[in-house]
Amino acid sequence: MYAFNLMNKYSNPLTLIRMVTIRGCICILILTTVLSCQSPTPIANEIEENNRLKELEAEKVSWAFFEYKSAIEESNGKAAVNYISKSSLDFYEQMLFDILYADSSKISKMSFTDKMNILIPRGKFSKSELVGLDKRKFTTLMWENGGLNREVNLSIGKIRFVASKWAYADLIVNGKQFSDLEISFSFENNKWKLNLNSYMPKINEVIDNEIANLALSGVSELEILSSAFYEETGKTLTNDTWQPLIQQNSTNNGYTILERIETYLAPSYPVTEYLSKEPYDSRIDKNLKVPPTLTEVLVQDIWIRIMDDSTNQEISRFNISHEHTQSAINTYILVNHNKLRGLRSWSHSNFINTLTENERLLLAKELASFIKLNGVNQND
What is the average per-residue pLDDT within 268-285? Predict the structure, then answer.
């Protein structure tokens, strides 16, 4: 969001895509092209009927954007958030996670636009304003602290349906169409919604190329970042801004209960007619992939427990809580190991049953913390 308006000061080529500014993220808002309504005509055949239905769906797609755009113009984030897709919300959820936890090493490897998305919100909002927000509330906060750049004349081209629940449209900037710059729409919960992250790879490519061109003329990326940061926050970009708002361990150090699984020895596996060892050991014997540490194996099995609960389908690494992991832990106490999917259900069941109630509560908190920071290794 911030990059295009800022870069326009330095380089004329950036006028090719003047940016819509929404504080906290780079997001192009597409000016809807309302399809002309045609008078009803007799339907001669099935092809004509299909075309008519597509036209009606195209109007719905355009209208969805119109409602979204209107909400953004009024800085009405609560309304606008209803017109973006789940993948868009996931995009902002990742952004929030990086704002809170990403360190200078991680940020330095990001694209210019992603650096802006992390650093500027750190200057605009306090940790207390961000901690505890879910993805909808965070996205709403970003939009309600931003606005639409009315110098931008953006529209979409002809809407193309690639499936009954998926559509694309070319992005037209000030009357000009650019190769590979398009936005997608998905049909979710009986509504067409915008996938705001669908054009990000192209945007990042354009911006990074411009940054490289500016470097040739002696303008560094840090200078541009510092200037943008000051314009948006009124503050100076310092080394502290590059540091995470929340410090967390990236290894097992500090996970007093979780780290025990690395050295825990379970009783001998109860051999059956069909199984002589746990799936984890069988995979190793067959040279199949397993998570690199026993800690990550436990995390993966716990994640399976969480996902097996149909009420947890909206849970991600970013909004997981110790209540979710505690419920998964309790499953190992209440259900026999051979009824549970996983790589080491036998070992994990025995391990958890050796813990006191307080230790299991601490383990639940450590598991939630580990998942938030590291994610879940799914290379099984």
Answer: 91
Phi, psi of 167 (to 5 degrees): -145, 155
**Cβ burial, residue 114 (10 Å; 0-12/13-18/19+):** buried
* Residue with token string 């500016």: 214
Distance CA(320)–CA(376), nearest Å, equals 12
Backbone angles phi, psi at 25, to 5 degrees: -160, 160
Q: What is the pLDDT of residues 215-243, one digit of tens each?
A: 888 899 999 999 989 988 899 999 999 99
- Cα separation, 208 vs 214, in Å, equals 10
Q: First CA to last CA across the chain, in angstroms?
A: 38
Model confidence pLDDT, tens digit, residues 95-125: 988 998 889 999 999 889 899 999 999 999 9
CA 95 from centre of chain: 7
Question: Tokens at residue 182, please?
Answer: 């398009």
Angle, CA 370 vertex, CA 369 and CA 371 arms, to 5°: 95
In which element (H, E) is residue 186 found? strand 176-188
Q: Are strands 176-188 and 191-195 parallel, antiparallel or unpaired?
A: antiparallel
Tokens 């009357």 locate to 175
Cα gap 195→84, rounded to integer Å: 6
Q: Of 216, 225, 193, 214, whose CA–CA distance to 86 is shortest?
A: 193
How far apart, in whole angstroms, are the C-alpha atoms of residue 332 and residue 329?
6
CA nearest to 161, candidates 57, 87, 86: 57
pLDDT surpasses 60 at 30: no
- The answer to whether residues 173 and 11 touch, using CB atoms and an 8 Å cutoff, is no
Say how far apart CA 156 and CA 137 lie, in whole Å: 28
Residue pair 131/246 in contact (Cβ under 8 Å)? The answer is: yes
Residue with the two structure tokens 């092209």: 33
d(CA 77, CA 220): 34
